[in-house]
Structures are given as structure tokens and as C-alpha cells.
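From: lab user (bench 3)
To: helpdesk
Subject: output format question, protein + iron/sulfur cluster

Hello, I'm new to running complex predictions and I'm not sure whether the block I got back is the full result or only part of it. Here's what I submitted:
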Amino acid sequence: MTTVETVAPFKETIAEIREAGGDIYRLCYQCGKCDVVCPWNRVRKFSIRKIIREACFGLSQIESEDIWRCTTCGTCPARCPRGVKQIDLGVSLRRIAAKYDVFPTSVRAARTAGGSLRAEGNPLNEERRKRADWAQGLDVKPFAEGMEVLYFVGCYLSYDPRLKKVAAATAAILKRAGVDFGILGSRESCCGESIRKTGGESIFRELAKENIKTFIEHGVKKILVSSPHCYHTLKNEYPEFMVHFEVVHIAQFLLELLRSGRLRIRSGYGKKVTYHDPCYLGRHNGIFDEPRELLQAIPGLTLVEMASSREDSLCCGGGGGRIWMDTPKGERFADLRLQQADEAKAEVLATACPYCITMFEDSRLSRDDEGSVRIKDLTEIVQEVI
Ligand code: SF4
Ligand code: SF4
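Helpdesk reply: Thanks, we reran it on our side. This is the complete output you should expect:
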């Protein structure tokens, strides 16, 4: 097994870990509470506690698949009695692995995604010039200074066939509510959230600077996003570049539109719906109530909760760059989440994140009968009732 000592001078490694998480991980007293709440331990053995212990001794196993496992779901940092920053430590180890080009086979896709991000501004090997193709025929305008809001569409909604439907639903709702909005099209780049979590710090910085330059050139003030990953990054991480934009997630914005009367619900939705809290909307940013209020405002819709919800929400498995990596059947958190939706007797599993939808749809399609539960973004439900 390659340890950090064999790929990098010991001092440099410790400095790198320190830079990403300070000495905070050294506060760990090995109580193991993190391992108890980690979703991995529902599907296989995994110990972030052990990774922390090895880091304390400078013995991190850089070629181990385990350093790539954390989905950055945010459950264990919230439970740690010593305030250890497990995610920061994990990211710092990935930065070291990326720097020395040590990628286990199962995570090579993260390296490929990095190449695509550098070349085309998206992780999906798609062409930059096709970024706005989803909007063809939908009468969506390019963003111009003075518009109420910039709709920052994000990579998956721009290119993924399933998620283009969510982008289209969003545009339809905004138009219906009379929102003066525009998009950046090929001038938009990935927000950089996931590549940063997989250790690609320099790529993240390039993408962030590119986006920030474009926002400033276009006079952007308020940014609407569909992805909680874009939300988290634009709101909490772009200020590292000394800029502050008003960032709003579509779940919040739709509720605002409803409350102000700009959006009117015209029909009912007679289904039993359960809502999955995406990690980066809920745990990382405290947005638990708005999506539920939005759903509850729809006549006929019955909202039911799953076994793990709100702060305890079960991660879909797609965060931390895991969306790009293959997770073997039997180890997919999304399979468990669909079971929880079944147990809650939900007909629809609603969420508000492109990664969650991707992971859930994959799980649904891998079921023998493709399951009865339908996967929907909040916007797709709202579009049906306005
Ligand atoms: S919960 Fe905190 S203190 Fe306990 S083992 Fe995990 S990181 Fe260490
Ligand atoms: S952040 Fe989530 S996935 Fe990562 S180690 Fe903690 S509980 Fe596990």
C-alpha cells in the first residue's frame, strides 16, 4: 500500500492536510460516532475514524479507494463531539492523490471529468457550444443587465436528457410567473463544486474565476440555481474570491413566487409524495422547510415523510464526486432510499437536486419491475399544477 510518505515528503503532506483542515482532525478522540452515522456502514464496512487516525500519524493510504468514498454528505461533521472537519480532511487527501496522479481504477472517471471541465466547462464530455441547446424552442432569453434574475442552469440540467426536462419545467414556470430572467448559454461554466471535492482545486479555481468574470461583465446581481451543489458553491465558496452575489435556490424562489401571488396554482395533484432532502440543500444549508411548504401548498397532494428525513436525510450517494464513479450494486445508498420511499407508501419521490434525480433514476431503472415510485424534481410537479 502506498502511504503519503512514499509519494510525498512527510512534511509537505502534513502541511497540505493542515492547509485544508487545519489541525482540527487532531482533536479526534476516536469515539467512532462518525462511523455510526455514516451511510456507508449501511451498505459495507467503512471507517472515516480510521482515516482520521492514519492522518494523525501521517500514514494516510493515498492509493486506497477509501479516501474517495466520502460523499461529503455532512452527517458526521454535524455529530462529532469534537468539531472535527472530516470532509475537509478527506478533500485534502484527495488533493494529494490528484497531485501525484494516484487514482484507483474505480475513481478514474474523476480524472476524466477534470479534463472535460478544463476543455469544455462541463464534466460530461459535452461541447460548450451546445450548453443552451436544452432551451431551443422555449423562448428563453440570453441574460442582459437589468434583468430580475440570472438562471444559472448547471451542467446536468444543460446536457443530461432526463434533467433537461427539469430545466424546461423551470423555464416554463418562470415565464408563467412573469419573471424577467435570462441564461448565459455557452458563457456559463460548471460551478466547480464536485471537482473541488475530488481534489481538483486548481480546476475549481479556474471555473470559479471564469464564472465570476462573466457575472461581473453581465452585471449579474441575483442568481437562481436548480442544483444545491451550485447553490452551496456560489453562495458559500465564491465569496473566497471577494465577490458576493445574491443566490437563491429554485425551491426558495418558487415559494416566494407563490407567496407574492405571482405564481398561481390552478389544479390539484392527487398523489402521495415524499420529499428527499438533498445533502447540500438540507444539512449543508439548512433549507428543509421551503420545499415542504411548496408541496403542501398544492391541493390534493399528501406529503409523507420517509424514515430518514430532514437533518437525518439519507444521502443519495452522488456527492463528493461520487456521481462520476461507479458504485457496485448492493452498495448504492439510492437503492435504500427508494426502499424507504416504498415503506412510506409514496407514489412520488420528489427532490430538488440533479444528482439525487440521477442516482434515484438509476436505482429505479435497475429494479426488476422499475418500481412503482416515480422520481420528480419539485419543478416538474409545480409545472403540472399551474
Ligand atoms: S465523531 Fe469526531 S471525535 Fe469521534 S471518532 Fe469521529 S471524528 Fe473522532
Ligand atoms: S460526510 Fe457523510 S459520507 Fe462522508 S464520512 Fe461523514 S457521514 Fe460518511
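A quick orientation on your result: Residues 28-34, 49, 52, 80-82, 84, 86 surround iron/sulfur cluster (ligand 1) (CB under 6 Å). Let us know if anything else is unclear.
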